[in-house]
Write a structure and sequence with these properties.
- By secondary structure, the chain is an alpha/beta fold.
- It has 2 domains: 13-246, Type I PLP-dependent aspartate aminotransferase-like (Major domain) (Aspartate Aminotransferase, domain 2, 3-Layer(aba) Sandwich), CATH 3.40.640; 249-375, Aspartate Aminotransferase, domain 1 (Alpha-Beta Complex).
- Helix content is 39%, strand content 13%.
- The strands form 3 sheets. It has an 8-stranded mixed sheet with strand order 1-9-8-5-4-2-3-12, sandwiched between helices. A 3-stranded antiparallel sheet has the order 7-6-10, with no helix packed on it.
- Helix 2 packs parallel to helix 9 (236-246) and helix 3 crosses helix 7.
- The longest helix has 24 residues, at 249-272.
């Protein structure tokens, strides 16, 4: 069977986890947390990176940092994971969904201004598949209307917008190290704090609302509860696993790009004949090969293709169901404007197997099977 995903493993993770266990420091902010954070800060040129238990919690921290409250509004695409919306709905904010662009599956930046009201506090661009949103336009709108920008770069580590790493273009950025991502530790995430004014408060929120980080730096003689927060620290065992991957992030990226490029080259013929659509990478973007997807003609055809591939022991999957059409989306949010693309494109999209270490036989089997399907 060719799985849709295999969690990345490079070989040093066992040794690093062993070192973490032998250090007898298994909770957060040990040696491997510090080493991973420093390495991430270097990779993305961030002022401060804080490891978290998940990207969901990095987004939760963002909402707390911005003091989002009931009655506020936050603009984001409907085509995203539930965590993007949950972070702000949990604070009582209304989630305002807008349509996507069919070329990148990212939020349509031209629709943002029409969704802004006096209650709008923030814009949350989601860099789908590690392909950058049009950040110059988004940041210009945010500046004009005095709004904050929180990047959901869950899929975007090692991707760039005009040579600047994703997750560092807004006030805050969030990343995921879930086992389906390019760099993994099972469950984990990170918050990039790009505005220095938020750094100390971010440390407090992450440490259960205490000034414990200042205590460990010797800046106070004892620590206490000073603000709202929760336990957002990544375990040292997870950080040890992650560090092994971050050390070899270029190697992992190169390997994934080989599969992405193979798919793209071998899907062009079907695309040119009008059977499928393939990803479009704007000139301003350098992507990280997080996923390769194709778009079938419609939902019916996609379902048939999924079943056809499964009969050949190839697991290909669809992705998000639009949040605005879900029960919670209708309860906590509102779709602004017309749903021209979100639902239709989400019903066409099919993600192909792509993982570190995927071999040429597996790639060819996927491509050959898709060609066989359309020959019929």
């Amino acid at each position: 069977m060719i799985p849709f995903n295999k969690p990345c493993f490079v070989g040093t993770e066992f040794q690093y986890i062993k070192e973490a266990i032998e250090s007898e420091k298994l909770c957060g902010d040990g040696s491997f947390t510090r080493r991973s954070s420093v390495l991430l800060e270097r990779i993305i040129a961030s002022k401060k990176v804080l490891l978290t238990t998940s990207c969901s919690h990095a987004l939760d921290m963002s909402a707390l940092l911005l003091e989002i409250k009931p009655g506020d509004e936050v603009i984001m695409p409907s085509f995203t994971f539930v965590s993007t919306a949950n972070a702000f709905a949990l604070r009582g904010a209304k989630v305002v969904f807008i349509d996507i662009r069919p070329d990148t599956m990212n939020m349509n930046e031209k629709l943002i201004e029409s969704a802004i009201t006096k209650k709008t506090r923030a814009i949350v661009p989601v860099h789908y598949a590690g392909v950058a949103c049009e950040m110059d336009t988004i940041n210009a709108i945010a500046d004009e209307h005095d709004l904050k920008v929180i990047e959901d770069a869950a899929q975007g580590l090692h991707s760039y917008y005009k040579d600047q790493p994703l997750g560092t273009l807004g006030d805050l950025g969030s990343f995921s190290f879930h086992e389906t991502k390019n760099y993994v530790c099972g469950e984990g995430g990170a918050l990039s704090v790009n505005d220095p004014a938020y750094i100390e408060k971010a440390e407090i929120i992450r440490e259960k609302g205490t000034n414990r980080s200042r205590f460990f730096r010797g800046q106070v003689d004892k620590y206490t509860w000073v603000d709202l927060g929760s336990s957002y620290l990544m375990s040292e065992l997870n950080a040890a696993y992650l560090f092994g991957q971050l050390e070899r992030y270029d190697e992992i990226n190169t390997n994934r790009l080989q599969t992405w490029d193979f798919y793209n080259e071998n899907m062009k013929d079907l695309s040119e004949k009008g059977f499928i659509d393939i990803p479009i990478i704007p000139d301003y973007c350098i992507h990280n090969a997080h996923m390769y997807y194709i778009k079938a003609r419609d939902l019916t055809e996609r379902t048939k293709l999924i079943n056809f591939l499964r009969e050949r022991d190839i697991i290909a999957v669809f992705h998000y169901l639009p949040l605005h059409s879900s029960p919670a989306g209708r309860k906590y949010g509102e779709f602004m404007g017309e749903d021209s693309w979100t639902t239709m494109e989400s019903e066409r999209l099919l993600r192909l197997p792509l993982f570190y270490g995927m071999n040429s036989d597996q790639r060819e089997a996927v491509v050959d099977s898709i060609n066989d399907f359309y020959k019929k």
